Amino acid sequence: MRYRLLAVDLDDTFLNKELQVSPRVQQAVIEALKKGIIVTLATGRMYRSAKKYAFSFLGDIPLITYNGALIKYSRSEREVYHQPVPGELALTIYRRVKGHFHLNVYQDDELLVEEDNQYIRDYSKIAGVPFRVVSNIEELLGKKAPTKLLAIGDPEELDQLWEETNGEFRGVLHITKSKPHYLEFLAAGVNKGEALKILAQHLGISLTETVAVGDSYNDLEMLEAAGLGVAMGNALPEVKRRADLVVPANDEDGIAYLINEIILKN
User: What is the pLDDT at residue 58?
Assistant: First the structure.
């Protein structure tokens, strides 16, 4: 099978533990691009956070961001797809989470919080984006639907919230974990797998010609949608079980292995 599109998760997949793209991975991506393979990022991160990793050497490509809620070109900034969380549902989640967990709200590709604390400072540093403290998130949500909401807190307590809200909002919200301490709330039907389908159709590429690679729960739909679903060596056990292939870990340049030994040899 000749693969034409490679969709790569960012954190703990494309990036190493220093949050960098290693020279070996970058060189492998360049070789793939020379062969006419489109390489894009599929991440839970904001568009403004993801684009800086694409801008330097991937060219003008549509990026899958916010776990699939926004697909937008990295240079021209042309929007392909955007599905925000409906306003009333966003307000319900805000009221449910407030006082129990820290909450990030993403609106117009801006990171909004009601409190400056260690959670948002750590998140802002990792994502490489600024945040803005606003006095009344609820008022803003009433005016405009957000792209995503993200609760941050204790992993076990978030697991409990995940179980409760999955039952309560089944069919009207998509709720997933990108990291043990991150619980993400998206519009129904929004996930990386659906975004991959939309992107492949937009590019005129068959899903059988796509490869997707990731490490966490929010990558599962994408791995299942792709022609070849790949888990990193550092991926969660469930992700490895449901993948077609497991490659070395992110700190072992697993993406370079995937490109050089699997994609380019096909």
Answer: 82
